[in-house]
Amino acid sequence: MTAETIEQTLVPNLGRGLVVGVLPHPFCNPSVKGCGFCTSPHEGYSEPKAMAVTAAVTEEIEKFFADHADLSGHRVEALYFGGGTANVTPVAAFRPLCHALAGSLDLSGAEVTLEGVPAYFLDGGEERLDVLREQLVPQCFRVSMGIETFDKKQIRRMD
User: pTM for this one?
Assistant: First the structure.
């Protein structure tokens, strides 16, 4: 979506709360090709690439709000971090991304969701949740996992 399209969509509706989706990167790390978790295009995880893409997304957010100051501070009802495997976003890149969003939008009443692979919420993934708590002041946090994560056979297949 271009900045012009966003502005045409948002400006007439500034009285409404926004739902914002941020896809920090397109990377995932399935142990099998076609794990079945998602149908969107993605690439094998690479920390340097994830750092670079997340930094570019952060820069794009900062530039958008610098160019559209009238949209700064707008109240957000929900903020969703998804796409690829959002909960493996490198912490060093995730922190500035959250900081840019917190500095551009009113997230004080927002529900903030971090999508990801269940194991990564436990195995070092709590660092990203700590970043959310440090950088954002939302109404509540939640995690998002696909329904297939409730199927033990599928979890074994996905590793």
Answer: 0.80
